[in-house]
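hiii, so i know i said id send this last week but things got crazy w the move. better late than never?? heres the sequnce for the chain we talked about at the cafe, plus the structure i predicted for it. fair warning i was half asleep when i ran it
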Amino acid sequence: MHGAQPDKPVAPLRTSLIRAVLAAVVIVCGLCLRWYGFPLGLPAFVVKYGGSLLWATMVFLLVGVALPRLTRTQTAAIAMVIAGVVEFSRLVHTPWLDAFRLTTAGALLLGRIFSPWNLAAYAVGIAFGLWIDRLVQLRREE
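okay and structure toks below
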């Protein structure tokens, strides 16, 4: 069958699209938590570390969008490295980087202050991303 398209290349595209939609949902949830968490009376711990957890979930999903052929374990490892690099980058201070961190985009993407507790929140967020990704796959196989 020379002219037939193989079925396999569709799977990574579909996987990427599903992960992109999930990432968008996680982003909306994270923004809502950061913007409305305090006005709703949520504890600072939930707002702070819930946002970090969702940020890491987003990183996991976006790595999965970019590299759909990787295993979940490989995707999680790359996401954890990215999260760690971003967290430790908060120890680096240059005028332009500090100025960017003071913007809303900078605070949401890079954060402002180093906290080792964020690394724990990132690990939980990546585990959450693994769970969501597996759950969606199981639903698709039904």
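btw DSSP finds six helices and no strands in the chain. thought thatd interest u
miss u guys!!
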